[in-house]
Design goal:
- By secondary structure, the protein is α+β, with helices and mostly antiparallel strands.
- It folds into two domains: 4-41, no CATH class; 48-133.
- Helices cover 49% and strands 16% of the residues.
- It contains five helices and five strands; from the N terminus they run E-E-E-E-E-H-H-H-H-H.
- It has helices at residues 54-66, 72-87, 93-107, 111-119, 122-133, and strands at 4-8, 13-16, 19-22, 28-32, 39-41.
- Helix 1 runs antiparallel to helix 2 (72-87) and helix 3 packs antiparallel against helix 4 (111-119).
Length: 134
């Protein structure tokens, strides 16, 4: 396994196992070789005040593990339940594939990858809400 590769813009910050790390003056790529390391780009983080939709709430649960605010054991069951609830709304095959992959990643304690899958649903959720207002 090659590990997780993150590409960083100049001065971009991210959390690695709870420590804030800032990139230097140049773009760079880092390869995280340690399996199950908790990595969260701060630009991707959802602020608690922004957690106002079902997908954002589900993403936030995964984010809590990556930020070191909760343990995988504390979050696994609520996160899997939240993903299951989303699968009752997102019925298209692409969304279901993302939810299935997110579930697999949670079961493998790969919360960064789970979060990436879940965040892919945000534009779809926004479209559903917009269609509901029409």
């Amino acid at each position: 396994m090659t590990g997780l590769v993150i590409r960083l813009a100049p001065h971009e910050r991210f959390l690695l196992n709870g420590a804030v790390i800032e990139n230097g003056d140049r773009r760079t790529s880092l390869s995280i070789k340690t399996r199950h390391a908790n990595v969260l780009r701060l630009r991707d983080a959802i602020h608690p005040d922004q957690v106002n939709t079902p997908v954002k709430r589900t993403c936030y649960l995964a984010q809590l593990v990556l930020a070191g605010d909760s343990t995988p054991d504390d979050i696994r069951t609520p996160l899997l339940r939240a993903i299951e609830q989303l699968s009752q709304v997102f019925l298209d095959s692409d969304s279901r594939g993302l939810l299935a992959t997110a579930t697999e990643r949670v079961l493998e304690d790969e919360y960064y990858q789970a979060l990436k899958c879940l965040k892919s649903l945000l534009p779809r959720e926004a479209r559903l809400f917009a269609a509901g207002r029409s």
